[in-house]
DNA sequence: GAGTGGTCTAGACCACGGA
DNA sequence: CCGTGGTCTAGACCACTCT
């Protein structure tokens, strides 16, 4: 018996409760949309929306003809926000500062070409900069921008605005890959981040594409005090 | 002119295209649902679904009365799968091995209590184990389980099954926090992971709750060769 | 108050894929 | 084949919020 008026939210939460409280065990075939619609006194479309949300969250598995089952091996996903460095820092109430270290058009080394699946190593813009929070080094950014895809970047002024900030405003991406890892600070990175050489660093790498054309590869290095936190 | 038959997918993609190709610039107020429905020859509900998906993805911002705008500061999110270690390793075609190092009921140290907001330090199960891929250390797991929330864990046998595997089957969580960071291998961790003491390690920490009750805190340490990858 | 998005309904047809 | 989920429609009412 559910006293609440029908709504995809209440239905979703009630079904979610039945799964969490193990009334429906993993692997159980749950009633069809029609049956649930009748039970909750709702339209099938409403039940459908509730079920789709749970399926998207990974706690239900739906197949035509076979029906809907409680996921046996819930492949749960979490989300993390793709931070824009200025917002990230200012959002915590810290003062954001930016320092351009270098920006030059040059040939890309082998590693970079390979990482971006580039045929030609020319027409690349190499930008290095530092982001600070409350005057303390927060992130060192080493970025390659593909001028063949984003020719406008040649005229961009990275003295006052970080390349990420410029890119979100001028070159939207359709596709991205994020990699996170741990590494050791090189001599350069150490002096910029004010840590000792060889100290652990948290590294994020992003590659973005627009319709299959690589836009940019960003190598983002944080001191080991950095935390990347997300909730589910 | 859109030649495709109306469907929330085609509408979504077409709107997405207009934004990506800067036909609608960030901040633009786009036509209302009714108008779009007419343009695409679809019902308003169909347009609504397309718009909702784009809003959820962060590229549109919708407000009642104010209409729908192209997001100025697209707060984009990416998803990552919460891996179950066995699947993660076997999914790459590697052989999974598991080794229990210790499991004992003991008082939790201050740090752990604080992290879990626990009032009492008793009734905690401390489990340490190692996960290997192709006989190479892959992850060292140091976990605290709250027996007050999950009393059944006392009778669990962690000799053949990792605590994560046991928990997903016996104690679903309603809420979780994930933290990722870089650190240095302690002497213990170094010998277990077969790296040198002080070498960088990639650390993941998860805390899970069931209805506000803390279930477990897992501290997961990977050698620095580890990569966490996700796409958008 | 009024305009916009948010949700629900009843009915319909379609597509997939298991039996 | 045919039952199940996937999607669409036309219409309706509601909720929020800007003016």
UniProtKB/TrEMBL annotation, chains A, B:
Keyword Transcription regulation: yes
Alphabetic keyword roster: DNA-binding, Transcription, Transcription regulation
InterPro entries: Bact_HTH_transcr_reg, Chorismate_lyase_/UTRA_dom_sf, Tscrpt_reg_HTH_GntR, UTRA, WH-like_DNA-bd_sf, WH_DNA-bd_sf
Taxonomic superkingdom: Bacteria
Domain HTH gntR-type: 5-73
A Pfam family recorded for this sequence: UTRA
Listed name of the protein: GntR family transcriptional regulator
Organism annotation: Nitratireductor rhodophyticola
């Amino acid at each position: 018996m559910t006293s609440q008026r029908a709504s995809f939210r209440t239905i979703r939460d009630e079904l979610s409760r039945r799964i969490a409280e193990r009334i429906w065990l993993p692997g159980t075939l749950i009633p069809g949309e029609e049956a649930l619609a009748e039970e909750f006194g709702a339209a099938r479309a409403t039940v459908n929306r509730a079920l789709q949300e749970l399926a998207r969250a990974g706690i239900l598995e739906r197949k035509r003809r076979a029906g809907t089952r409680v996921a046996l091996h819930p492949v749960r996903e979490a989300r993390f926000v793709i931070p824009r460095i200025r917002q990230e820092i200012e959002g915590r109430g810290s003062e954001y500062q930016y320092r351009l270290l270098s920006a030059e058009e040059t040939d890309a080394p082998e590693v970079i070409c390979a990482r971006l699946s580039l045929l030609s190593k020319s027409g690349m813009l190499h930008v290095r900069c530092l982001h600070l929070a409350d005057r303390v080094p927060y992130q060192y950014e080493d970025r390659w921008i593909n001028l063949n895809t984003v020719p406008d970047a040649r005229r961009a002024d990275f003295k006052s605005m970080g390349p990420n900030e410029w890119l979100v405003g001028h070159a939207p991406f359709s596709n991205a890959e994020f990699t996170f890892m741990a590494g050791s600070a090189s001599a350069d990175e150490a002096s910029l981040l004010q840590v000792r050489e060889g100290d652990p660093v948290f590294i994020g790498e992003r590659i973005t594409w627009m319709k299959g054309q690589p836009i940019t590869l960003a190598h983002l290095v944080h001191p080991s005090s950095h935390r990347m936190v997300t909730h589910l």
